[in-house]
Amino acid sequence: MLVFVVGLLYFYALGSGRIVRSNDIKGTRFVCSAIPKNVDPNCPLPPNPVQSTSAQEDELRGTVMQLRETVLQQRETIVNQQGTIKELTSKLSRCETAALDSLHDRKYPGQGSWSQDHGKNTMGDLPRDPAETIDHLGKTMQGLKDRLGNLEQQIQVNASTAAHSSEMRELLKSRLSELEKQLLGKVSELEEEKSQLYNETAAHRHRTESTLNQLLERITELEKGTSKFKSPEEFKLSLPLRTNYLYGRIKKSLPEMYAFTICMWLKSSSSPGIGTPFSYGVPGQANEIVLIEWGTNPMELLVNDKVAQLPLSVGDGHWHHVCVTWTTRDGYWEAYQDGEKLGSGENLAPWHPIKPGGAIILGQEQDIVGGRFDATQAFVGELSQFNVWDRVLRPADIESLANCSSYMPGNVVPWVDNNVEVFGGATKWALEMCEDRLYDS
């Protein structure tokens, strides 16, 4: 510290000396004059005309003024530094005095109060004695301890709050999970109800459309059908040869039925046996419903390949009205010829429903659905008024049909021109059934 102060004093002394010397030569001025090369400098020369150098003089004058201002600023700076040095020197002397007094008090305690009074009010930078310093440090430490305790309490409170918040968060999560499960369950139930309603609506719409289509077909067939005959039902199917390729086919199929009545007009003189007037086959059962007279056997009715022999005889070459009825209850059946019931029985495929979606073939017996015919089982003759009902007709209704006193088309398969296709040389001819029957008789 002393070395630093001495250095500052030495720098101040040097600066002051330079300034003094500059003050001593401040009044002296040197003038330079240009002379020729070979002229004696001691000889006076005539004055040269002064040239006008106003621009250069202004520039030099400005430079001199800047230098002067710089010198003045440096002087003010030096004066300020002198004041600072004096202040530092006084503080240094007081520090040294205080240090010496403290050392003296430690060596010779209790010798007067001059040193104590002399050590008071130094600079305010240090405490007045070590005891006060210790008290001050103790208070500071106590304040720090208090602050540390407050911080610990606050941390504990925050930790407990965080734990409580964590518990609340977990509780809310569990409640939200339960509510989500309940909501998903409700949505699933609503989707199932919606699906059921849609299925029921689709089924109802399908049934309605099916019924409407059937009605339209009936209307088209019975009222608007184009036919070359006088009336759509006044025609006959002619099958003149016993082959496996002449046949007729009903375009419509049968629905599922639990009873039926099938009626037709037949004319045949073939022997032995008239063959197969009609057959109905479904996938898995080619003999679902068959009416056949084969060889010397009597006429037979087959339902689900089960056989019942019928007491009918129609091979005399005249027109005969034939009806067969059947119900799934006990397999009860009836056989009519020309309006008269000639036979009945039961246990013919009882409790068996007639399967839907098969093929109705006129004039051939099917070994597979719609084909594989056997010429020995083919019908030879003429056939007309083939109608199918899904119920058992009353004997009076059957008698009316046979006597030509009424005409009642089948509610499942009616006999109309547009519903019958012919193959292999089979033909359709106009026929007024009742008039032709009377003429035949």
UniProtKB/TrEMBL annotation:
Which residues are listed as membrane-spanning? none
Q: Does the keyword Electron transport apply?
A: no
Look up keyword Calcium and say if it applies.
yes
SMART domains in the cross-refs: PTX (SM00159)
* Signal peptide residue numbers: 1-17
**Coiled coil region boundaries:** 134-225
Q: Name one Pfam family in it.
A: Pentaxin
Q: Which residues form the Pentraxin (PTX) domain?
A: 233-434
What keywords were assigned to this record? Calcium, Coiled coil, Disulfide bond, Glycoprotein, Metal-binding, Signal
The source's domain of life comes to: Eukaryota
Molecular functions per Gene Ontology: metal ion binding
Known cofactor(s): Ca(2+)
Q: What is this protein called?
A: Pentraxin (PTX) domain-containing protein
Could you tell me which species this protein originates from? Synaphobranchus kaupii
Q: What does the record give as the organism's lineage?
A: Eukaryota, Metazoa, Chordata, Craniata, Vertebrata
